[in-house]
Write a structure and sequence with these properties.
By secondary structure, the protein is an alpha+beta fold. It folds into three domains: 3-308, no CATH class; 316-426, no CATH class; 434-490, Arc Repressor Mutant, subunit A (Orthogonal Bundle), CATH 1.10.10. 39% of the residues lie in helices and 19% in strands. The protein is built from 17 helices and 14 strands. It has helices at residues 3-9, 60-72, 179-197, 237-256, 302-309, 316-327, 331-339, 343-351, 356-364, 366-374, 385-396, 402-413, 419-426, 434-447, 449-456, 463-473, 480-490, and strands at 11-21, 76-77, 84-87, 97-100, 107-116, 119-132, 136-140, 152-156, 163-169, 209-218, 229-234, 264-269, 274-280, 290-291. The strands form three sheets. A nine-stranded mixed β-sheet has the order 2-5-6-9-1-10-11-12-13. It has a three-stranded antiparallel β-sheet with strand order 4-3-14, with no helix packed on it. Helix 4 (237-256) links the parallel strand 11 (229-234) and strand 12 (264-269). Helix 1 (3-9) packs across helix 4, helix 11 (385-396) runs antiparallel to helix 12 (402-413) and helix 12 (402-413) crosses helix 13. The radius of gyration is 29 Å and the shape is elongated.
C-alpha cells in the first residue's frame, strides 16, 4: 500500500519521545566526565558502575537544565518530584536498573508549536523528566551490526550515567498526510530550542539527541487509538520523517490485509529505508518502578524557577523572523540558511564586519559545497566567522577577488593560519596597477586578433574572452573589472 493510500484509509496517530544528553561536565549521579569519544570504559567509577556501597548524588546543573527545558516548552514545573528505579536486565546498564523519573516528573503539560507548509501544529508535551543514559553495546561480527548474527558483544559504559532529559509528547492527532513532516518539524524545532538554551550540543550523529517514534493507525479520527509500534533511536531529522512514513505504510498494509499490529519496538535501517522487529514492547509494570531509596526528592522553589525563567533565550522561530528582517533575506533564502544550520554562523560573521549578503554568499556557497563534499558540518569545517568576515573585507577593499578568496579558504582549512597570513604566504594580491595590467591587456589583444576585431565591430560581449586571457596571464590576480575597462579603452569601444 502506498503512503497516499494508507493515509486515505487510516488516520495516523504519533507519539514522539526525544532523549537529550545534557552538556554537563560530569554525569548525572557521579563525578565522571562526560566527554564524547573517550577510550572504552575509561570514564567510569563505582557509582555509575553500580558497585556495592556506592551512593548517587544528583547533579545540580542537570536539574537546572531540566527546569529551563521545561519552562521553554511551556510546561508546569513540579514543586516536588522524585527519582525511581526502572528495573530491567540488559547488559548496557550495569546496575540492572536505571535511575529515572516515573510518576512524579519535574515538568508536565506543555506544548511546542511547529509550522509545516504555512499551517501551525501545536504539539502537546506530556512530560519532561530526568534520568541517566545507558551504556553502549557493540555487536561484533555479522553483517548488520546488531546482536542477531553477531559473533560476540562488547559494552562501553562511558555513556552510562550521562544526564538525560526525556521529552514525551501527548498523542499527536489531526496531521493526516502531513504526519511524517510534522514529526520532522517537531524534532527540528525541539533541537533548535535546546541549542538556543545551550543545554546540549544536540548532535544526533553522536547520539546527543535521539528520537523514538511511536506510530499507530485507526480507521477514522473519532475511533479509538490503534496498537502502536515504537521505532527506537532514530538519529537524523531525515530519518525521523522517513521512519514515520514507512511505519504508516507498513501498518496500513498489515491492517488492510486483515493482520494485527503487534506492540513492539522496531529498528530503523537507514540503508533500506525500512523498520524491522526488535522486541515485544514492555509496559510500565514490566519495569517494576519504585522510588529510588538513595536519592532525596527534588524540590524546586518558586523563586528558583522564576529566576531560571529570566535566563530563557529568545524563541528560535521569533529570533529567525527578526534576523530575516534585519538581513533583508527572502523566505526562501532564510529557509536555505536554516536548513544549512548557518544562522549563528552568518550572525557572527556579520557581527565581525561582513555584510549580510557577503556572509550568506560564502557560507551557503563555497563553504557549503566543501561541507557537503567532506561530510563535515559547516561549523566544524575549520574556518570561523571572523575568518570569513576578513575574507569579505579584503574583497571589498579590492585586495582579493573571488578566485583568490577561495585560495585563502584553502590555506585556512589546511592550517596555514589566518586569512592575512595565508594572503602573505601565498602572495595573493590583486594586480590593479594600470601599468602592469596594460602590458597584459596588449599581449591579450595581440594574441587574439579575431576576438579583438569582433569587439571593435560591436560585439562587446566577446571581450569576456580577452578578460579571461588577461586573468590567466596574471594567474587570476588581476582586478577583472579594471581589466575589462582597459580592454575596451584600448580597443576604442564604448558601451
Amino acid at each position: 500500500m502506498t503512503f497516499e493510500q494508507a493515509v486515505e484509509k487510516f488516520d495516523p496517530v504519533l507519539g514522539l519521545e526525544v532523549h537529550v544528553e545534557l552538556n554537563t561536565e560530569t554525569k548525572m549521579f557521579c563525578g565522571c566526565p562526560t566527554t564524547f569519544g573517550g577510550d572504552p570504559n575509561s570514564q567510569v567509577c563505582p557509582v555509575c558502575l553500580g558497585l556495592p556501597g556506592s551512593l548517587p548524588v544528583v547533579n545540580a546543573k542537570a536539574v537546572e537544565s531540566a527546569i529551563r527545558i521545561g519552562l521553554a516548552l511551556n510546561c508546569s514545573i513540579a514543586p516536588w518530584s522524585r527519582f525511581a528505579r526502572k528495573n530491567y536486565f540488559y547488559p548496557d546498564m550495569p546496575k540492572n536498573y536505571q535511575i529515572s523519573q516515573y510518576d512524579e516528573p519535574i515538568a508536565v503539560n506543555g506544548y511546542l508549536d511547529v509550522e509545516v507548509d504555512g499551517q501551525t501544529y501545536r504539539i502537546g508535551i506530556e512530560r519532561a523528566h530526568m534520568e541517566e543514559d545507558t551504556g553502549k553495546s557493540l555487536h561484533m561480527g555479522g553483517a548488520t551490526g546488531r546482536i542477531h548474527g553477531a559473533d560476540y558483544s562488547l559494552v562501553d559504559y562511558n555513556r552510562a550515567g550521562i544526564p538525560l532529559i526525556e521529552i514525551v509528547t501527548k498523542p499527536i492527532t489531526g496531521t493526516g498526510a502531513k504526519a511524517p513532516e510534522v514529526a520532522r518539524a517537531y524534532v527540528t524545532a525541539l533541537r533548535d530550542l535546546l541549542r538556543a538554551l545551550q543545554v546540549s550540543d544536540v548532535r544526533m550523529e553522536q547520539g546527543s539527541l535521539r528520537c523514538d517514534a511511536n506510530v499507530s493507525l485507526r480507521p477514522s479520527p473519532d475511533a479509538q487509538f490503534g496498537t502502536r509500534t515504537e521505532t527506537k533511536n532514530v538519529n537524523s531529522l531525515r530519518s525521523v520523517e522517513r521512519a514515520v512514513r514507512y511505519e504508516i505504510e507498513r501498518q496500513a498494509d498489515v491492517l488492510d490485509g486483515g493482520g494485527v499490529i503487534v506492540q513492539e519496538t522496531r529498528h530503523w535501517h537507514e540503508d533500506t529505508g525500512k523498520t524491522t522487529s526488535g522486541r515485544t514492547k514492555e509496559e510500565a509494570e514490566d519495569y517494576r518502578y519504585f522510588p529510588e531509596p538513595d536519592l532525596a526528592p527534588v524540590a524546586a522553589s518558586a523563586e528558583w524557577v522564576d529566576q531560571l525563567r529570566t535566563t530563557l533565550p529568545e524563541p528560535p522561530a521569533q529570533r529567525r523572523a527578526r534576523l530575516q528582517q534585519d538581513w533583508g533575506f527572502t523566505d526562501l533564502e532564510m529557509r536555505d540558511v536554516v536548513n544549512a544550520e548557518a544562522v549563528e554562523l552568518i550572525e557572527e560573521t556579520i557581527a565581525a564586519g561582513a555584510t549580510a549578503g557577503g556572509a550568506k554568499k560564502w557560507w551557503l556557497g563555497e563553504l557549503a559545497r566543501r561541507s557537503n563534499d567532506s561530510g563535515v558540518a559547516l561549523a566544524d569545517l575549520g574556518i570561523d566567522p571572523d575568518g570569513v568576515a576578513r575574507i569579505e573585507t579584503l574583497i571589498a577593499e579590492g585586495s582579493l577577488n573571488d578566485k583568490m578568496a577561495r585560495q585563502v579558504i584553502d590555506g585556512i582549512l589546511a592550517g596555514e593560519g589566518t586569512a592575512d597570513e595565508v594572503v602573505a604566504s601565498r602572495g595573493l594580491v590583486v594586480v590593479s596597477d594600470d601599468g602592469a595590467l596594460t602590458v597584459a591587456v596588449q599581449e591579450a589583444i595581440s594574441a587574439n586578433p579575431d576576438v579583438a576585431d569582433k569587439v571593435r565591430g560591436g560585439k562587446v560581449a566577446a571581450v569576456g574572452a580577452l578578460v579571461g586571457a588577461v586573468m590567466k596571464a596574471t594567474r587570476g590576480q588581476a582586478d577583472a573589472g579594471r581589466v575589462r575597462e582597459l580592454l575596451l579603452e584600448t580597443l576604442g569601444v564604448q558601451e
